[in-house]
């Protein structure tokens, strides 16, 4: 509907109708206004499937939603490193929404994985904001291409489930901009999501639904967001304050309570009716964007979409270990499938994203479907039950016997439903003891052990050195079994790469000492050093690094070329690199470009991901991968100017197979286009002034006039007794504030220093 017509429609609404439009009609519908023909719109949970509820709807999944297709969760899809694949998944979900009359899919979930403990990490994409923003952007683009809205969430800094409705995420401006806002920024600027969902938590003391800086100043005015902001379900604190801040829609229904508060505030003059009108216009603009573009012919193709879910998962699976090239398994090997998840896979997380899958494909079912056609022989033993973390000795004995009588044992393990879910955080990174014991017992009787993991976040692997292979399937959706079997038997070459670091132990994580917080405050003391930014900067060993993943073929990199050796900040830098498949089978490689600031005066990570691409290569084939970098590739957030800033200096363009394995690098010199104004005073140091070319010239001239040289002889000479050496004097001079010249330079007056400071600041 045209904007003018929307305004005319709003002008016909009563105050009460306008106030009512700003909260839900029930759990899943916006309010309509029947007398004016304004329709109600339905939203539905996602983001990896359609969780549409109608009768007796609820938020936590107690009541069933419609039969639908569960795609891989965010932890998996980000590991695909494949924008096109995620966009296609979004298109499929958009078509499903059209078929079911759902106007907005509530996703993607894109908070940063600050700690492996966050209970909702299975929904989130990455510890890296660039990867998160790019994958989210592809998802949003795909869904909205079908004229269905998205609601990226949870904006922002929702990085723990513990006290998520009251906790305050405490962080400085630089950390916020470089990590937590950056996860959303690129997606919002490029893809313009129809809606945004704000988070439950507070940010530096202010609830996100009431945070004008986030919702209006940054999201709308700086990034150009033009949709409406809705609350997470039950996240509203103060309705009128939130409306002023830019939170338009409260979900779910307030049963008229907050509607009355809005109307009363307009009537008593504490809320301008113009603010309310603007919120109504934003909401109705999206309602009609869907209504005016309904696809009445859309059909929900369950079986087709199940096959698409398998295709997506195959590119998400990460091969973490493959000793002696045990994988892929040959068809004539007798394999023992061991573990409950071989028969009943854990393929999704708990909470608001839970999908009522119309069917679930297990690895055991998929393998037995191939037994006759591919000559595969598979036995099965349950091995454990994950209802309680207790070893069932009979199940363990059966599993060991199966393993003994096979050529290889494939153990399907991971995290049970009650180990990770929305609403609470994990307490540790361990898998259940009964599963670890099972793996250890099988390795004692079978040398060829492969572990397939079903989990939404990193786990410790005390048995890693004793197994031949590890396959990270994550929470791979309802077709995970078929996808895993295709990987195990080489029908598909694994190409996933970790979108998060697997640390050796929880104690190694950047926020280990502060995660969870105290007194409803969680201090982000690690700053920008999240995930691999921390581990690589400390050169700390990890179990598996960010960006890591193996293939059944091999790739070699060569011919890294930068089109310029020196550039100005405003110029683009074109980077190209050749990648060759040097193995014997076709495969896909993820090419990762990192940037390292070599001359920085700022505390920065040793490297940061700035570009990536996924390419398919046949054996012997070479492709040239090209990237274009702009100024953002070199920037950090400067808290003095409150903006992005490029330091002049040398930057290393690094091509890596992971954040810890850099294979090629070239240097580029970047000249900043911004001069940060300096303001000197009596406490400014000599070293600080001398580092500034202008300051150095003025200071040397002033000192020369006073003493005939830069430094008086009495300060420069060794005292002969070794008490003050040259190095000590240089260090003292570097850190000496101007005011100390009154003590060390004979004849200098305070007025002289004040004149010097005035000249420096002119």
From TrEMBL:
Pfam (any one): Fn3-like
Keywords: Hydrolase
Keyword Hydrolase: yes
Gene3D superfamilies named among the record's database cross-references: Glycoside hydrolase family 3 C-terminal domain, Glycoside hydrolase, family 3, N-terminal domain, Immunoglobulins
Keyword Hydrolase on entry: yes
SUPFAM superfamilies: (Trans)glycosidases, Beta-D-glucan exohydrolase, C-terminal domain
Descriptive protein name: Beta-glucosidase
Organism: Faecalicatena orotica
